[in-house]
Design a protein that fits this description.
With 371 residues, the chain is of the alpha+beta class. It folds into 3 domains: 3-115, DNA Polymerase III, subunit A, domain 2 (DNA Polymerase III, Chain A, domain 2); 128-251, DNA Polymerase III, Chain A, domain 2; 253-366, Roll (DNA Polymerase III, Chain A, domain 2). The chain has helices at residues 8-19, 72-81, 132-140, 203-213, 265-275, 326-335, and strands spanning 3-7, 33-39, 42-48, 52-59, 61-64, 66-71, 86-91, 96-101, 104-109, 128-131, 157-165, 168-176, 180-186, 199-202, 218-223, 227-231, 235-240, 259-264, 285-291, 294-301, 305-312, 320-325, 340-345, 352-355, 363-366. The protein has an 8-stranded antiparallel beta sheet. An 8-stranded antiparallel beta sheet has the order 14-11-12-13-25-24-23-18. A hairpin with a 3-residue loop joins strand 12 (168-176) and strand 13 (180-186). Helix 1 runs antiparallel to helix 2 (72-81) and helix 5 runs antiparallel to helix 6 (326-335). The protein is elongated. The mean pLDDT is 94.
């Protein structure tokens, strides 16, 4: 029967990663539980929602090996609340766990360990190491434009694919909700990455991948037939792949645009946030008017009022007026880091392309809207 002592900082790191994966409310109660397994000199914490599974290995003093499940939310809250340096975990009768920390003794009621979902975390696959900050940056530039519409299942995740750029194979992440398209590129050579086809990761799985990457300087990723696995020295994360074919994204990028406006990103973003203060779900389309070295943006909300503002830009073309969802630009501009961004377009009816010199491999395509 499980009996182990563990340092609280190590345990806290493990439960912080696990709690975001476990289901808070589910028709399957086991999905709201953590699996705890003590063996050798480790306590292994596993959480799963069937589509995403994480396993965290924490150093521990193991007096007796064993495994059982405990309510994840309660266990996480307990670990966060205690002030002691160590905690003792001891399995009791009828699938219970005694949680001992200083003068605190809490008994948690578990479920059968045999009912906990199985995973492919131990599957043999080839892994490639990526710099975590590069992966985080790539995810941040695309995750906001994932589709939230249930009927567009193939757009409800992040498309991961190897693309050849100037004779170098690079990893690209692509998302679209049908009204915009976001592409980010990890420019490191991905020739030895085991990704032989484009795959789609769920939004939650991508968020957990980002969360895990934040804990280390480098993260290893491997691709199987039905899932992606990411690993660090103490963690394994499995993300089941979504079915369906992602649209041919390259055909959507408007590379033939012949008009260009150069805009200070921070000034543009701050203007849009001010304009958006009166925006609501039914009134979020702003009028964008590009004229010689000037961009004028206005938005009208029939229930609140009107707002308008202009900023100087670098633009020499004819006057072009069009409409955009202001939040599409706010999200895109918040994700990139170039001081000056470029907007290219043909006219006010076709899509605009957002790029920046300090964001290599990034393309933001935003469709116009009626204002």
């Amino acid at each position: 029967m499980l009996h182990a002592n563990i340092n609280v900082p190590d345990l806290l790191k493990g439960v912080n990663l696990a709690v975001s994966v476990s289901e808070k409310k589910s028709s399957l109660p086991i999905l709201s539980h953590f699996m705890l397994e003590a063996k050798d000199d480790s306590l292994i914490i596993t959480a799963s929602d069937l589509d995403t599974t994480i396993r965290e290995t924490c150093p521990a003093v193991v007096y007796s090996p064993g495994r059982l499940t405990v309510p994840g939310k309660a266990f996480h809250s307990l670990v966060r609340s205690i002030k002691t340096d160590t905690v003792s975990l001891k399995e009791g009768e009828q699938m219970t766990l005694e949680f001992l920390a200083g003068q605190l003794k809490t008994t948690l009621f578990g479920l059968s360990a045999d009912s906990f979902p199985k995973s492919n975390l131990d599957a043999d696959m080839a892994f490639k190491s990526f710099v975590s900050k590069d992966l985080i940056d790539a995810i941040d530039k695309v995750i906001f434009s994932i589709s939230n519409r249930d009927e567009r299942f193939n757009l409800s995740g992040v498309y991961m694919v190897i693309d050849e750029i100037e004779d170098v194979k690079a990893l690209r992440l692509v998302t679209s909700d049908g009204k915009r398209l976001s592409i980010s590129t990890i420019t490191e050579d991905a020739d030895d990455f085991s990704l032989t086809r484009g795959v789609i990761m769920s939004k939650k799985g991508t968020q957990e991948l980002r969360r895990l990457a934040e804990t280390v300087g480098e993260i290893e990723i491997g691709v199987g037939y039905t899932s992606i696995t990411a690993k660090t020295p103490t963690s394994l994360l499995e993300i089941h792949l979504l079915e369906g074919a992602f649209p041919e994204y390259r055909a959507v990028v408007p590379l033939a645009n012949d008009k260009r406006a150069l805009i200070n990103r921070q000034s543009f973003l701050e203007l849009l946030k001010r304009i958006a203060l009166i925006a609501e779900d039914d009134f979020k389309i702003g009028k964008f008017e590009f004229s010689a070295n000037n961009l004028h943006i206005s938005l009208s909300n029939q229930t609140v009022g009107e707002s308008q503002e202009a900023i100087p830009i670098e633009y020499e073309g004819e006057t072009v007026a069009t409409g955009f969802n202001v939040f599409f630009f706010i999200e895109a501009l918040s994700s990139v880091k170039s001081e000056i961004v470029s907007l290219t377009f043909i006219d006010g009816k076709q899509s605009f392309l957002l790029t920046g010199p300090d964001d290599p491999g990034y393309f933001g395509v935003i469709l116009t809207s009626t204002f």
